[in-house]
Amino acid sequence: MSEAQTVQWFPGHMTRTRRQMEKSLKLVDAVAEVADARIPVSSRNPELDRILQNKPRILLLNKCDMADPAQTARWLAWYRSQGWAALAVDCKTGKGLGGFQAAVRELLKDKIAAWEAKGMRGRVIRVMVCGVPNVGKSSLINRLARGSRAAVEDRPGVTRGNQWFSIGKGMELLDTPGVLWPKFEDPEVGERLAFTGAVKDEVVDTEHLAGRLLEFLRDQYPDALCARYRLERPELEGQPGYVLLELVGRRRGMLVSGGEIHTERAAAAVLDDFRAAKIGKITLEQVG
């Protein structure tokens, strides 16, 4: 993504949400940060480290069923080596969520012991759920609460305000709005977020974006790319994104009058295929 295409968010929105989160932190015992397993770094807002400070935190790498399993295992090992509590989960299917409450209780075991010493056995544990837009926070809550109690939609920015949800066994979750930071210092962070749909397609050049994604797939997952679009590996070698996009469009018969390739339609298809894991289980960031 070029400098001109670096995604800007609304500083005022970020400020309001940050203040809301800082106020809500006093009400919770721990934080569950939801990230996208396909982009385990870029889907984590660096502002959260400052906002959350030393509040106990568990990291959930969501959408693990869409990510490269080998890469997810490496990311979990890396985060745990840094002292994090971390789980790989898929909030839509519930995969990995069976261990959520136990992991939170392990994270808070000293605090729980202190409560019990004061005669507060059974005190409700309150956990704030946070993360960038479209990363799966509402799906997490719905799955744990066993019902569609939080607004879920496959587009960023649906959750508007704080909401509490009981998930049983003496635990409650606090939902918070997803928020991106005002400006991405690294354009590739904005690009990766846009690949996954955390940034609205309306504010990016989708043809450029799809071309950049195809370049990544050409280098890291060429077999998956070839299988999805009936391409041959020699066709990919050294080709820039716009040529790869034209190859996909031509192979899919996305033509307009005069035989020109409908690259906008091809771009939408590539992005939709990636976001639905139809190209394969892909992770865009590697450990180290």
Tell me what you see in this structure:
The structure is a single chain. This protein folds into 2 domains: 3-175, P-loop containing nucleotide triphosphate hydrolases (Rossmann fold, 3-Layer(aba) Sandwich), CATH 3.40.50; 205-275, Conserved Hypothetical Protein Ylqf, Chain: A, domain 2 (Orthogonal Bundle). The chain is 42% helix and 11% strand. It contains 12 helices and 6 strands. It has helices at 11-25, 47-52, 69-81, 100-107, 109-117, 137-144, 187-196, 206-220, 222-229, 233-236, 241-251, 263-275; strands spanning 30-36, 57-62, 85-88, 125-130, 163-166, 171-175. A 6-stranded mixed β-sheet has the order 3-2-1-4-6-5, with helices on both faces. Strand 2, helix 3 (69-81) and strand 3 (85-88) form a beta-alpha-beta unit. The chain is elongated. The two termini are 22 Å apart.
Secondary structure layout:
Layout: H1 11-25, E1 30-36, H2 47-52, E2 57-62, H3 69-81, E3 85-88, H4 100-107, H5 109-117, E4 125-130, H6 137-144, E5 163-166, E6 171-175, H7 187-196, H8 206-220, H9 222-229, H10 233-236, H11 241-251, H12 263-275
Parallel strand pairs: 1-2, 1-4, 2-3, 4-6
Antiparallel strand pairs: 5-6
Helix pairs in contact: 8-9, 8-11, 8-12, 11-12
Structural class by SSE content: alpha/beta
Low-confidence stretches: 1-12
What string, H for helix and E for strand, traces the elements in order?
A: HEHEHEHHEHEEHHHHHH
Major sheet: 6 strands, mixed
Helix content: 40-55%
| N- to C-terminal distance | 22 Å
Mean pLDDT: 87
Total strand segments: 6
Radius of gyration: 21 Å
Number of domains: 2
| The CATH homology group name of the largest domain | P-loop containing nucleotide triphosphate hydrolases
Name the overall outline. Answer: elongated
CATH architecture of the largest domain: 3-Layer(aba) Sandwich
